[in-house]
Amino acid sequence: MRYLYFLLLFPLCTSLSAHSQADSLALLQRAKAELAKPGAVVSSVLASATYRPLHPLTAFRELISSHSRAEIITMVPDDEPGVKIIVKGTVKSNDGKPVADAEVYVYQTDSRGWYAADRPHVGGNEGDRRHARWFGYVRTDKDGRFELHTIKPSGYPQSDLPAHIHIEIHAPGSTDAMISELLFDDDVRLKGNTRDRAQGEGFIIAKPSAAPAPFGQLFTYEIKMHGD
Asked: Sheet containing 73-74: which strands, arranged edge to edge?
Protein backbone atom coordinates (compact mmCIF):
# COMPACT_ATOMS: atom_id res chain seq x y z
CA MET A 1 0.00 0.00 0.00
CA ARG A 2 2.84 2.42 0.75
CA TYR A 3 4.27 1.76 -2.73
CA LEU A 4 0.90 2.51 -4.30
CA TYR A 5 0.75 5.80 -2.41
CA PHE A 6 4.23 6.63 -3.69
CA LEU A 7 3.35 5.90 -7.32
CA LEU A 8 0.14 7.83 -7.13
CA LEU A 9 1.14 10.86 -5.15
CA PHE A 10 4.87 11.55 -5.26
CA PRO A 11 5.19 13.00 -8.80
CA LEU A 12 2.63 15.75 -8.43
CA CYS A 13 1.63 16.25 -4.84
CA THR A 14 0.80 19.88 -5.56
CA SER A 15 -1.79 18.85 -8.13
CA LEU A 16 -3.86 17.17 -5.44
CA SER A 17 -4.87 20.33 -3.61
CA ALA A 18 -8.51 19.67 -4.50
CA HIS A 19 -8.25 15.96 -3.81
CA SER A 20 -7.09 14.19 -0.67
CA GLN A 21 -4.94 11.09 -0.94
CA ALA A 22 -7.89 8.95 0.11
CA ASP A 23 -10.13 10.57 -2.51
CA SER A 24 -7.57 9.96 -5.23
CA LEU A 25 -7.04 6.34 -4.28
CA ALA A 26 -10.79 5.75 -4.21
CA LEU A 27 -11.15 7.39 -7.61
CA LEU A 28 -8.36 5.26 -9.02
CA GLN A 29 -10.07 2.11 -7.77
CA ARG A 30 -13.30 3.30 -9.37
CA ALA A 31 -11.49 3.78 -12.70
CA LYS A 32 -10.00 0.30 -12.46
CA ALA A 33 -13.42 -1.19 -11.81
CA GLU A 34 -14.94 0.65 -14.76
CA LEU A 35 -12.25 -0.56 -17.16
CA ALA A 36 -12.67 -4.12 -15.87
CA LYS A 37 -16.31 -4.22 -17.02
CA PRO A 38 -17.08 -6.32 -20.12
CA GLY A 39 -16.98 -4.18 -23.22
CA ALA A 40 -15.37 -1.22 -21.47
CA VAL A 41 -13.40 1.21 -23.62
CA VAL A 42 -10.49 3.37 -22.50
CA SER A 43 -12.28 6.58 -23.52
CA SER A 44 -15.00 5.97 -20.94
CA VAL A 45 -12.38 6.75 -18.30
CA LEU A 46 -9.81 8.82 -20.16
CA ALA A 47 -12.36 11.35 -21.47
CA SER A 48 -14.49 11.47 -18.33
CA ALA A 49 -14.46 14.68 -16.31
CA THR A 50 -14.87 12.49 -13.23
CA TYR A 51 -11.30 11.22 -13.54
CA ARG A 52 -9.72 14.51 -14.60
CA PRO A 53 -7.87 14.94 -11.26
CA LEU A 54 -6.05 11.64 -11.86
CA HIS A 55 -4.63 12.44 -15.28
CA PRO A 56 -1.17 13.64 -14.16
CA LEU A 57 -0.64 10.70 -11.82
CA THR A 58 1.63 7.78 -12.60
CA ALA A 59 -0.73 5.05 -11.39
CA PHE A 60 -3.57 6.35 -13.55
CA ARG A 61 -1.37 6.58 -16.64
CA GLU A 62 -0.15 3.03 -16.08
CA LEU A 63 -3.76 1.91 -15.82
CA ILE A 64 -4.62 3.51 -19.15
CA SER A 65 -1.52 2.02 -20.78
CA SER A 66 -2.37 -1.46 -19.53
CA HIS A 67 -5.77 -1.26 -21.27
CA SER A 68 -4.54 0.18 -24.58
CA ARG A 69 -5.78 -1.53 -27.71
CA ALA A 70 -6.71 -0.78 -31.31
CA GLU A 71 -9.71 1.49 -30.86
CA ILE A 72 -10.56 5.15 -31.32
CA ILE A 73 -9.68 7.02 -28.15
CA THR A 74 -11.00 10.32 -26.89
CA MET A 75 -8.40 12.13 -24.79
CA VAL A 76 -10.33 15.05 -23.30
CA PRO A 77 -13.74 15.63 -21.68
CA ASP A 78 -16.48 17.31 -23.70
CA ASP A 79 -16.15 20.53 -21.72
CA GLU A 80 -12.45 21.05 -22.45
CA PRO A 81 -11.97 24.43 -24.22
CA GLY A 82 -10.48 24.43 -27.69
CA VAL A 83 -11.11 23.30 -31.25
CA LYS A 84 -12.04 19.63 -31.34
CA ILE A 85 -9.91 17.72 -33.82
CA ILE A 86 -9.49 14.21 -35.17
CA VAL A 87 -5.97 12.87 -35.51
CA LYS A 88 -5.49 9.85 -37.74
CA GLY A 89 -2.16 8.13 -38.17
CA THR A 90 -0.74 5.23 -40.12
CA VAL A 91 2.46 3.68 -38.81
CA LYS A 92 4.69 1.95 -41.36
CA SER A 93 8.04 0.23 -41.21
CA ASN A 94 11.06 1.55 -43.05
CA ASP A 95 10.13 -0.61 -46.05
CA GLY A 96 6.56 0.69 -46.14
CA LYS A 97 4.74 -2.19 -44.45
CA PRO A 98 2.06 -1.40 -41.83
CA VAL A 99 3.14 -1.90 -38.24
CA ALA A 100 0.33 -3.65 -36.38
CA ASP A 101 -0.14 -3.71 -32.60
CA ALA A 102 2.37 -0.94 -31.94
CA GLU A 103 1.72 1.02 -28.76
CA VAL A 104 1.30 4.73 -29.44
CA TYR A 105 1.76 7.17 -26.56
CA VAL A 106 0.76 10.80 -27.10
CA TYR A 107 0.68 13.86 -24.89
CA GLN A 108 -0.02 17.51 -25.54
CA THR A 109 -0.75 20.96 -24.18
CA ASP A 110 -4.21 22.44 -23.84
CA SER A 111 -5.58 25.42 -25.78
CA ARG A 112 -3.48 27.76 -23.61
CA GLY A 113 -0.27 25.92 -24.38
CA TRP A 114 -0.15 24.45 -20.85
CA TYR A 115 0.66 20.85 -19.93
CA ALA A 116 -0.64 21.20 -16.38
CA ALA A 117 -3.97 22.57 -15.21
CA ASP A 118 -2.34 25.41 -13.30
CA ARG A 119 0.91 26.15 -15.15
CA PRO A 120 2.57 25.75 -18.55
CA HIS A 121 5.02 23.02 -17.58
CA VAL A 122 5.24 20.24 -15.02
CA GLY A 123 8.36 20.27 -12.86
CA GLY A 124 10.47 17.31 -11.87
CA ASN A 125 12.05 14.49 -13.83
CA GLU A 126 10.58 14.46 -17.36
CA GLY A 127 7.61 16.34 -15.93
CA ASP A 128 5.69 17.11 -19.12
CA ARG A 129 6.35 13.71 -20.66
CA ARG A 130 5.32 11.73 -17.60
CA HIS A 131 2.60 13.93 -16.17
CA ALA A 132 0.99 16.04 -18.91
CA ARG A 133 -2.69 16.41 -18.21
CA TRP A 134 -3.85 15.39 -21.69
CA PHE A 135 -2.39 12.12 -22.90
CA GLY A 136 -3.42 8.83 -24.41
CA TYR A 137 -2.30 5.29 -25.17
CA VAL A 138 -3.61 3.37 -28.16
CA ARG A 139 -2.46 0.46 -30.31
CA THR A 140 -2.35 0.32 -34.09
CA ASP A 141 -4.74 -1.99 -35.92
CA LYS A 142 -3.74 -4.64 -38.46
CA ASP A 143 -3.20 -1.92 -41.06
CA GLY A 144 -1.01 0.17 -38.75
CA ARG A 145 -3.71 2.78 -38.16
CA PHE A 146 -4.81 4.66 -35.04
CA GLU A 147 -7.25 7.48 -34.35
CA LEU A 148 -7.40 10.11 -31.61
CA HIS A 149 -10.13 12.58 -30.71
CA THR A 150 -8.76 15.55 -28.83
CA ILE A 151 -8.51 19.34 -28.88
CA LYS A 152 -6.00 21.29 -30.92
CA PRO A 153 -3.07 22.21 -28.68
CA SER A 154 -1.40 25.61 -28.65
CA GLY A 155 2.29 26.45 -28.67
CA TYR A 156 4.01 27.33 -25.42
CA PRO A 157 3.32 30.81 -24.02
CA GLN A 158 6.05 33.38 -24.68
CA SER A 159 7.65 31.07 -27.22
CA ASP A 160 7.87 30.79 -30.99
CA LEU A 161 7.65 26.99 -30.97
CA PRO A 162 4.69 25.72 -33.00
CA ALA A 163 1.87 23.69 -31.50
CA HIS A 164 2.49 19.96 -31.47
CA ILE A 165 1.46 16.59 -30.14
CA HIS A 166 4.31 14.51 -28.78
CA ILE A 167 4.26 10.93 -30.01
CA GLU A 168 6.20 7.83 -29.00
CA ILE A 169 5.73 4.54 -30.81
CA HIS A 170 6.83 1.16 -29.49
CA ALA A 171 6.74 -1.49 -32.22
CA PRO A 172 6.20 -5.11 -31.16
CA GLY A 173 9.49 -6.84 -30.40
CA SER A 174 11.50 -3.60 -30.34
CA THR A 175 13.16 -2.17 -27.25
CA ASP A 176 13.54 1.28 -28.76
CA ALA A 177 10.76 3.80 -29.25
CA MET A 178 10.36 6.12 -32.17
CA ILE A 179 9.95 9.63 -30.75
CA SER A 180 8.62 12.50 -32.83
CA GLU A 181 6.08 15.32 -32.93
CA LEU A 182 2.88 15.79 -34.91
CA LEU A 183 2.62 19.36 -36.22
CA PHE A 184 -0.17 21.33 -37.92
CA ASP A 185 0.38 22.87 -41.33
CA ASP A 186 -1.96 25.79 -40.61
CA ASP A 187 -0.11 26.84 -37.45
CA VAL A 188 0.94 30.49 -37.84
CA ARG A 189 4.17 29.73 -35.98
CA LEU A 190 5.15 26.97 -38.42
CA LYS A 191 6.86 29.05 -41.07
CA GLY A 192 10.30 30.06 -42.31
CA ASN A 193 13.23 28.77 -40.31
CA THR A 194 10.89 27.21 -37.76
CA ARG A 195 9.31 24.99 -40.43
CA ASP A 196 12.72 24.15 -41.89
CA ARG A 197 14.01 23.17 -38.46
CA ALA A 198 10.94 21.03 -37.74
CA GLN A 199 11.29 19.18 -41.02
CA GLY A 200 15.02 18.77 -40.46
CA GLU A 201 14.34 17.13 -37.11
CA GLY A 202 11.95 14.68 -38.73
CA PHE A 203 8.73 16.04 -37.22
CA ILE A 204 5.57 15.15 -39.14
CA ILE A 205 3.37 17.88 -40.59
CA ALA A 206 -0.21 17.36 -41.79
CA LYS A 207 -2.63 19.69 -43.53
CA PRO A 208 -6.13 20.13 -42.11
CA SER A 209 -9.17 18.74 -43.87
CA ALA A 210 -12.88 18.83 -43.19
CA ALA A 211 -14.18 16.86 -40.23
CA PRO A 212 -17.68 15.85 -39.16
CA ALA A 213 -19.35 17.80 -36.36
CA PRO A 214 -18.55 18.40 -33.56
CA PHE A 215 -14.96 18.37 -34.81
CA GLY A 216 -13.45 21.41 -36.44
CA GLN A 217 -10.53 19.77 -38.27
CA LEU A 218 -9.06 16.43 -39.30
CA PHE A 219 -5.32 15.82 -39.53
CA THR A 220 -3.91 12.67 -41.14
CA TYR A 221 -0.30 11.63 -40.57
CA GLU A 222 1.90 9.07 -42.33
CA ILE A 223 4.51 7.90 -39.86
CA LYS A 224 7.52 5.86 -40.90
CA MET A 225 9.44 3.99 -38.22
CA HIS A 226 13.23 4.33 -38.28
CA GLY A 227 15.87 1.68 -37.85
CA ASP A 228 13.68 -1.38 -38.35
From this structure: 73-74, 145-151, 84-92, 217-224, 208-209
